[in-house]
Write a structure and sequence with these properties.
Helix content is 0%, strand content 59%. By secondary structure, the protein is mainly beta.
């Protein structure tokens, strides 16, 4: 966040390159990201996301879907 608060997480997944090596280059990305806490307003945050994408010669496209909940989100 702009004030320096951070979200902490772990990522597990795969980065797969087809064989024989393709030309143009392409690789496939899949995984999950698990929110394990944070600092400031994100302290105690939880959540998870799925990651799916492609790394191609012209860059990386990554789709992320999921949710992050924090203790601060319940305050009114």
């Amino acid at each position: 966040a702009a004030n320096g608060d951070t979200v902490e997480s772990t990522i597990e997944g795969t980065y797969s390159i087809p064989w024989p090596w393709p030309s143009p280059f392409i690789a496939y990305i899949t995984g999950t990201r698990t929110v394990t806490g944070g600092t400031g307003r994100f302290q105690g945050a939880t959540g998870s996301m799925t990651l799916e994408g492609v790394d191609a010669d012209n860059g990386v496209t990554l789709n992320v879907e999921g949710m992050i909940s924090s203790v601060g989100s319940a305050k009114k």
